Structure formats: C-alpha cells, structure tokens
Amino acid sequence: MTQIDTSVPHSARIWNYWLGGKDNYPVDEAAGDAYTAVFPGIVTIARSSRAFLGRSIRYLVQEAGVRQFLDVGTGLPTVDNTHEVAQRLAPEARIVYVDNDPLVLAHARALLTSTPEGATAYEPVSLFEPEQIIEAAGKTLDLTRPTALILSGILGHVADYEQARDLVRRLMAQLPSGSHLSLNEGSRGTDPAYEQAQDAYNETGAVPYFLRPVEQIEAFFEGLELAEPGVVSVPLWHPEPGAPAEPIGQHGGLGRKS
C-alpha cells in the first residue's frame, strides 16, 4: 500500500479542510490557515465550487434526464458527493469516479456506496489518459447512453492550457450525443486578491493550480451547446432562491453534446 506522507501539506486535503471535511492533518490545516490569512475568500470559493457541482447535477438529472456520471479528478469525499446528489433524485443513477492520487485511493471505500438500484465505482486512472478513463468507465456505465462528464477544479492542475483543452476534447469525443460537460475552474479577472494569493501559493513548491481567464474556461466548451446562462461565476449559475449571488473567481457552466 502506498505510504501517505502526513508531514507535508497536500492540495486535496487542504481543499477537504476548507470544505469542512475531516480527512486532513494538522499540516494541511496550517497550510490552509496560512492561505486564508492572505485570502479569506478561498473558503467561499471552495464551497461555492462544491455547491455549483450539486446544482449542475440536479439540473442534469431533473432537466436533462441524465442517469450516468463520470467524475474525473474526484478529490476527497466530503458532503454531497456526485453519487449522493444524483442518487437522491434518481436512485438508478450510475456513477464512476476517477482519480489516481494514492491519498484519494486510500479513501475510495467511502465513495463506493450506492443505492441498490444504481452503481458507484472508482477507477484509479490518470486525467492524462483519457482513452483509458473511458475504457475503465465502460465497465460500469453504458457508454452508448448520454453521460455527464464532471471536471470540477481539476484542469487548473494541468499547466499547459492547450493540453488541458485536448484532454477535454478527447474525453467528450468518446461520449455519445446527448452527453454533457459540467466544468468549473478558478478564474482570473474577477478577484485580484485571489489571483495574488494563488500565484504566491504556486511559488511555494506546493502542487500548483493555475487560474485561467474566463474566455479560456469558456473555450473548454467548444462545440457544445451551453445551458443558460452560459459560463458565469459559479454563484450566478442557477442560484438557489435567496442565496447570495456575488461574483467570485470561480467560473463554470454546463454544455451538451449534440
């Protein structure tokens, strides 16, 4: 079994800490607190990204009739994971999680729960192997039927933008007509304080995460039909009634393959 190093902070555990999860260590809390001391809004960004994911899944189930989900770059389980949201509304929903991080793998059993009618599986494949991802997903999903590809805050870890676009294209190319892409990423152009904090974090030697201009996030949806209101700051995408809808440096959208 892979030894998990608890002496250095880990981005998935820091994110878990910001989301209020329990799968983190003092070193992650210290790194997370150091970041929030510079930019307190990171907790809002983390939780707004997770809330967007939940709203997009509800839209996919209720409005688009999707019953299959491929969640790539899953991260650590916290609250309202993809399978929980989907199966709450459609118990027959089938979900495949993909993440090759040994830390996430160690916690995969927590993800592998399902309703009796549906299915949940975990595949330890790299984001950089899109054909292998689809092949592995096909063990659980019927890839002749519409499937929702979920990329939530993962593409910022791909330093080369054109490579990131290519990965999205290759994944979507293997999914049938009627499939969807739910994507949200850290963005530039909305919150200079966030950009400054993230750029400084990237220089610490930690695993970097690159914020991208909104037009680059929009371009991930090239060739897809965007659901209204398009690619927007995530609190503005189908907000819950009465929820605060202030723009933040995290943009996302939902696109359909015709």
UniProtKB/TrEMBL annotation:
Gene Ontology molecular-function annotations: methyltransferase activity
Superkingdom of the source species: Bacteria
Keyword Methyltransferase assigned: yes
Any GO BP annotation: methylation
Gene3D superfamilies, alphabetized: Vaccinia Virus protein VP39
Pfam family, one: Methyltransf_19
Keywords: Methyltransferase, Transferase
InterPro entries listed in its UniProt record: SAM-dependent_MTases_sf (IPR029063), SAM_dep_MeTrfase_SAV2177_type (IPR006764)
Protein name per UniProt: S-adenosyl methyltransferase
Provenance organism: Streptomyces cahuitamycinicus
